[in-house]
């Protein structure tokens, strides 16, 4: 018998992976009642592949994953929603494990699992959440052999330090989406600039935590296919997006769980510094300098003064040449050598 769950998969030009993703849903030991793929303006046959794989398909003009998720959630006929990205996979017992937990704790509307990174070369890491310092610091109570309970306020405070509720792991009661405001924001509603990518998944989870506590199955039941090159090019924007999200929470406290202000202010400077480092790592010296100057304006520290001075020197024609040479040396010589020696896995 199928579970009363709708699987919602937003997809944009996911023709290479959508069949594999849907196959992982069909492979569940206990399956869902329906699978909805929202084709977000693809041009590569994503919709056709999804239909052939047994999913219902909604086609929309490209509007971003948040709008696509909303369309799928609104079309769902079941009282529970399971989110899944179009390039991720579930392990066969994922839904069964979560449903067992939901049945034992009927008042909780957010149920997550641990997950594992799968790299481009096929190497799969061990369970990820247990290694995240933000999750390790979260106050939680063991309620089963591999299940932990987090009060909504504790989960929200912990996530300010680092997001750990991967969308593809979430099973969500439809009641969490009721009452207005608890849908994913569209990309035009959040800040998106060359400097900043405000995280829609993170923002939604914080709002959802106004109305539900969290249960986590502490087993890796989701394979998250990680693209390191894509991440490295956007990591600076994402970390600055965390700063922007903190500012949004401070400006609109009624939209989010109470008691987050002190944690947001505590991590703000470290997030700015991390953003600057990621921009520099990607070769974007100008953006690294912009963020470092903002960190200096807030800290006034010698450390940040030295960083800004170094970036100002590097943000010159000669500095750019030196940086590009260093990056080429790393990519073409040092990185392959470290991989060959077994000292670098990715």
Provide a descriptive summary of the structure in words:
There is one protein chain. The protein has 346 residues and is α/β, with parallel strands linked by helices. It has 2 domains: 3-226, Spore Coat Polysaccharide Biosynthesis Protein SpsA, Chain A; 234-315, no CATH class. The protein contains 12 helices and 10 strands. Strands 1, 2, 3, 4, 5, 6, 7, 8, 9 and 10 form a 10-stranded mixed β-sheet that branches. The model has no long low-confidence stretch (mean pLDDT 90).
Q: Quick recap of the structure?
A:
By secondary structure, the chain is of the alpha/beta class. It is 46% helix and 18% strand. The protein folds into two domains: 3-226, Spore Coat Polysaccharide Biosynthesis Protein SpsA, Chain A (Alpha-Beta Complex); 234-315, no CATH class.
């Amino acid at each position: 018998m199928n579970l009363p769950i709708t699987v919602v998969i937003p997809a944009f030009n996911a023709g290479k992976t959508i069949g594999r993703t849907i196959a992982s849903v069909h492979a569940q030991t206990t399956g869902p009642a329906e699978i909805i793929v929202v084709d977000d303006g693809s041009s590569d046959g994503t919709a056709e592949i999804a239909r052939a794989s047994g999913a219902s398909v909604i086609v929309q003009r490209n509007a971003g994953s948040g709008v696509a998720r909303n369309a799928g959630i609104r079309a769902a006929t079941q009282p529970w929603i399971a989110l899944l990205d179009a390039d991720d996979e579930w392990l066969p017992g994922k839904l069964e494990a979560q449903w067992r937990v939901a049945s034992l704790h009927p008042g909780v509307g957010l149920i997550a699992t641990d997950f594992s990174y799968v790299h481009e070369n096929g190497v799969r890491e061990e369970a990820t959440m247990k290694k995240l310092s933000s999750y390790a610091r979260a106050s939680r109570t063991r309620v089963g052999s591999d299940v932990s309970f987090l009060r909504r306020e504790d989960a929200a405070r912990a996530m300010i330090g680092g997001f750990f509720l991967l969308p593809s792991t979430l099973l969500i009661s439809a009641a969490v989406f009721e009452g207005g405001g608890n849908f994913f924001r569209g990309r035009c509603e959040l800040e998106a600039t060359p400097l900043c990518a405000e995280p829609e998944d993170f923002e939604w989870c914080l709002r959802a935590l106004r109305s539900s506590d969290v249960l986590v199955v502490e087993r890796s039941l989701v394979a998250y296919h990680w693209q390191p090159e894509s991440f490295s090019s956007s990591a600076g924007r994402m970390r600055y997006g965390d700063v922007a999200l903190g500012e949004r929470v401070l400006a609109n406290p009624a939209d989010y769980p109470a008691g987050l202000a002190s944690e947001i202010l505590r991590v703000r400077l470290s997030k700015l510094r991390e953003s600057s480092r990621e921009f520099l790592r990607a070769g974007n010296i100008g953006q690294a300098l912009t963020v470092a100057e903002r960190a200096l304006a807030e800290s006034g520290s010698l450390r940040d003064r030295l960083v800004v001075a170094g970036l100002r020197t590097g943000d010159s024609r000669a500095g750019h040449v030196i940086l590009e040479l260093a990056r080429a040396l790393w990519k073409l010589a040092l990185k392959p050598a470290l991989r060959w020696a077994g000292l670098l896995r990715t």
